[in-house]
Amino acid sequence: MFLPIFELGPSWLVKGIIASILGILYFIYTREAAPLRKIPGPFLASITKLWVVNKQRGFKRPLVDMELHRTYGSIVRVAPNEVMVSSPKAFRTIYGAGSHFKKGEWYIGTGDCGWSGPDNLDLLSEQNMEKYRAQRRGIGPAYTESYMRDIESNIDAIVAKNIGIMHQRAGQSVDLDIFFNMFASDCLSMATFSKAKNLVELNKADESIHFIHRIWKYMHLAGYFPNFHRFVSWCTHSTSLGWLKHTIQLLSPSMDGRDRTSKTSSLPPEHVFAFPIKHIQQRMAERDDKLTSPTDELSTDIAARLLQLQAEKGQLSDKWIMGMCMTNYGAGVETIGITIGAFVNNIVTHGCQERIHQEIDSGRRAGILSTPPKLREMKDHLPYLSACLSESQRLHPVIGMPLVRIVPDGGCELEGRVLPAGTTVGLNPWVFARDKSLYGEDADIWRPERWLEYSPEKLKHLETYNITFGTGARSCPGKYLAQAIYTKMIPMVLSDFEWSFSNPDAEKVLQCTFSVRYIKLMMEWKVRQETTKTG
């Protein structure tokens, strides 16, 4: 009647006992035997990465990480095999020149896992440094500070046009982040193709802006589960799992298995990347049909420069050019929009508008400020405005989660702790920007005057720790393009207008999905009297 357990096979009880034993052993290992066991941090974080994933899905990662460092110090364990650090020395070790720390697995979740082929260009997720360096060398001349002068008139034209539209719509209440995303998209379209999307004129954000916000909600979590993301990517490229592919597309429209970097990609007009793909395909078709020589200067913009470099040096493939034109939108719009939105919020919140208006008006009367400002005019002739921008970028970096890297072979020592090879380690820009050894005891507060008080030597020293556009070999190639746009936009939106909150008592809600933006922060502007007098 009672059969031996071995004849019955493993029962639920036996399985439960085995699972319990394995769980206890895992718990003992991660807490008492793992190499990271002595690094302080939340209890649950030492047991499972689900702790940090749960914090991530709350979209408040910058605030979480600042509190963690206040509680535990300069090094914190946030997962069984991941730590955060924050100090100038740790920064130099991880991201400095000659560093052998490679990007962590988290970045796998931002790419397509190789489905676009080996000739794909994805600078954010690319792990092959030889290929990455070749791509950077190939596209580099189209993004230099000197080339920005060549396309400056393109940017000036759309900035002036959109400022004119803002005059007509004075008193309008806008979502600050969405509005400046629209403005940035118009500017990047002119810089890239000499054609504007005219989103500000249409008074409507196109699908590309909303899409980028949506896809990052997936990617900033998918990075913690790289194998899951690989599976999702495989499903979207599999013809045998149509129902699953369709479901994934509904959840994440970017996962449609379509190679957008093909010269023959056919996308509907409402597709998020239809604009850049359409225009670069037209340029390539003209080249292939030999209607014009690739080196003929039919237009002066980034797309034309990339095609010219391809003809002259032969380093750039069509897929690289297509991928880079799309990157201008996928990364540039968000970076510029967040930078200007955070800046406007900060100068209104801290009562800096009046002094900025006085400085701009003085520059105009002295004849040293153009309309729109020329490149470097803001930096050279508007010191207080420039200081406010530096302070805003310091306290509200675009990126709000650690830039994770992998400890190389041989391990390393950070903050007095030995980390074995393979450990994931990163520094959160929001935490590092408040480092008191760099910015003083008042590093937590808004005080733009600090940038006017620092000596040239101090400013040069701080620049080595500036991660606004990344750092080292993985710095952002679009740095000068973004700067060219927002150093023209910022003086113009302050020169002509006075900004205020539509509802001063409304709660300001931050959302971090890798980048950090304000959600539904409503603001409005009115035309300044000084502008009316001099306009």
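[next item in queue]
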Amino acid sequence: MAPGHSRQPLVVVVCNDLIISLNPDLDSEALLALTLPQLVQKLHSGELSPEAALFTYVGKAWEVNKGTNCVTSYLADCETQLSQAPRQGLLYGVPVSLKECFSYKGQGLTLGLILNEGVPAECDSVVVQVLKLQGAVPFVHTNVPQSMLSYDCSNPLFGQSTNPWKSSKSPGGSSGGEGALIGAGGSLLGLGSDIGGSIRFPSSFCGICGLKPTGNRLSKIGMKSCVYGQVAVQVSVGPMARDVESLALCMRALLCEDMFCLDPSVPPVPFNEEVYTSSRPLCIGYYETDNNTMPTPAMKQALLETKHSLEAAGHTLVPFLPSNIPYALETLSTGGLFSDGGTTFLQNFKGDFVDPLGDLIWILKLPRWLKGLLAFLLKPLLPRLAAFLSSMKSRSAKKLWKPQHEIEVYRHSVIAQWRALDLNVLLMPMLGPAMDLNVPGKAPGAVSYTMLYNCLDFPAGVVPVTTVTIEDEAQMEHCRGYFGDIWDKMLQKGMKKNVGLPVAVQCVALPWQEELCLRLMREVERLMTLNSGRSDCCLPSCLADSGQPETIRSAPSLVRAQLPP
């Protein structure tokens, strides 16, 4: 398959009779407008049938996919799952989308790599098993960047996914297909993974909510990766949805005895309802910039408006900045991810076309001595790139253990700094708005706001709060970055013509305190929705003319779906 070749869009063969007989008078637009808790209530009461929900969302996903290329495959087993879904489950009858890294029995997982083609999974991943036990109906796999180590979303097998708000913009990555599908209304709830921002970037770029839990809060058994055994920087499994309450509902459903039994390595700690629903005022640390990636005008304005709203609601906001962020990013995170010099990662690309991944591949391919020499020569002019190069050199076991220990020491130092101010949670900018296609790989330094919390292994979530204004756009011309290097220049170039696109903030809590993180996210969402006068989260304006049928009577239901061989 030639580089850049994209497979055909999802082909859907439809039949109307079944869905008409199930819910002859139901308005499909009304169904699609339901929040996840509302849909669950109607499914449990019998007011809606699981078939109506599934086939309506399959039809909507098909429409969305034609414009964004976000779906890689239809999970044909979902129709069987309809009849097997336990009615008492918290997610009974809910269609759920999955990032194309979660094993689903009989379905292949490629990660956009040719060497992974044609190898069907032998069983479901643990999180998929738990979703099914809770009554959910997984129905599609969604697109990822090649290898998943990118915050864009393109690969040689399935092509480029695009942003539902503007097709010239990236949906983010690596859970980019999820972000695009949910952001455009083609799914209510999805699962992603995050090792440097892979849930949070798509959530920010596509105007939805996403949560990266502590690394081992949810099971990772059955999740495919390009590199196994790397433990210095933790990968997390987490939910993505239109609103915070949907994230909380998903966490309630997953944090159950079934998960703790299927994967005893996950701490058997159920969802803490008391913490999540508490209304007591919070002590919130905040920072406007990490002094590594200059926030865009829209990012800064979003943070300040959110801060003022929280203060007006009675919460206490305290300036706080984690110590030594450049060290955490350039030495600990990069060194931890590529402690073998990238050898294991590069093996995935043998005999494959390499999708545009920016500087990463060519840097990893450099011999160790050349990385060291370039780091020395570039340090006076390009200090970030020099540190990046230096940290990507292979090292011995002795030198591997040292940075792993240093990550532990750094984590405890930040926790001590946090507790000295008696903070509950933390608020900060989130990279946004969406960048132009193919730009993320050329601006790796911009992962600073997200990667830090993978290094620390703190739970972190993203909530959309504002949109880019004409004033934000005009000020972007003066946003040169802190270093003025090629990464800063690419970031500025890739963030233009964004008026009307969503902008988010990031909320963080200490390890294992996902409920507290969600509590802050819920409060931010509530206050910012009130201030904006919106009744709920906005959907891309392009969807208003998507051609989606008005009623279930004319909406397509799915008999089967095919992708070309």
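[queue empty]
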